[in-house]
Amino acid sequence: MEVLSLILRLAHTLTAKARSAGGDYYFRSVASAGALYPTELYMASHSVRGLDDGLYHFAIHRHCLYPIRAYDVCSHVVRFTQTPDNRVPRLSFFLTAIFFRSAWKYRDRSYRYHLLDTGHLVENMVLALKALKVPYHLCYEFDDGKVNQLLGLDETKEVCLAVVHVLGTHTMADAPVEEITQLPGEMRTASQVAAKETDYPAIREFHQASGSLIPEAGRASEMRLELGVVPETWTEALVPSTWPEVMNYSEALYKRRSRRNFVKEPLSKDHVGALLDSLSAKDPTESAGDAEYPRTLSVGLLAGHVEGMEPGFYLLDTTKASLGLVTYGDFMESMAHICLDQQWLGNAALHFLFLTNLELMDRTWGARGYRYAMLSAGRMGQRLYMAATAMGMGCCGIGALYDGEAAERLGLGEASRLLYLVALGPVKSKIVAT
After folding, report:
1. Residue 218: per-residue pLDDT
2. pLDDT value of position 110
3. Tens digit of each residue's pLDDT (9 = 90 or more) over 326-347
4. Is the overall model pTM greater than 0.85, yes or no?
5. Which of 88, 186, 261, 402 is packed most tightly, with the most Cβ within 10 A?
6. Domains of the chain in sequence order
């Protein structure tokens, strides 16, 4: 229970409190579009010392688990999520999104933010498990309807988007699986978060369109080769022998904020090298399936005020940790305009870009590939938030942009798009450890 409590504390926790006219407002350890936090966390336990087997909802405000199903649901979990070799998970974390939490503000486009925000929490969960040396298995491929039924969700309002397993050593024998019982009505209505909610049918249509799984998805080529842009030169990214950190992992978790009061100060080579290293780092414990998800993306970089680096558009080869120059030039101001005239973006030292070829993604993974790409972009964004905070820099992610104009400005091919932009750089108020 102590280890489980620490996993939950590191993955999803309240980190600060501010007063507002409407009452207390709480900051969280994960980034969220508009600070609307649509993502909820559920957990199935099996043979955890000190905890009854069952299905729980994690209540972040109280840091406690509320029982939903007071019996072992591992047979359902193995069947609906197809765990490797039918191994029974000790823990399964289910990450869901409540549509209206974001839709009241962002309307149809909010499905993007549901996926990005869930990706942020996936990465925080993965970082926690890595820090505690707990092997994990990431799963985006599951039976949508059955998993939502197991969690007791009203699928018109809330759906599961990702699962993270802590696998045990035992396998599930072939045996009849009991029917899932219906939860009490008050549990099913928990997905409603406002007395009056506007329905946005397109969100459900987007999600349902990506519901099908491709049994034998082909292996995708490197996404950076399919964007319609070709770097002129490639240079090895210099990773510093020691990261220029000002705080450790747990301190950065509590200090993380969306900070965008950037100042036009040059970023050092060591800082850039450490950021590139954070995106290129490979986890030797990842399964083959986990490693495929990031292949839905390519990472780009717009350099503005960087020591020893010409302003321009670069691509990152994460396998070789090298940078390829696509085009020289100042992109920062024009990208600020494309991102709904958010002029503070022009002061950032770097813009990280998460790019994909929609046609290639669809051919390889089907419509569900869009989920993989957006969740992976969210994961990489959260990783940048944590790395930037640890080095005392500001960081802020942007999903609000004019898609066509961004592709045109970057010179991307017709089927290629920018999914997510994350700006980083020095800020007016230095971030220091407490």
Report:
1. 63
2. 97
3. 999 999 999 999 999 999 999 9
4. yes
5. 88
6. 2-209 (3.40.109.10), 223-425 (3.40.109.10)
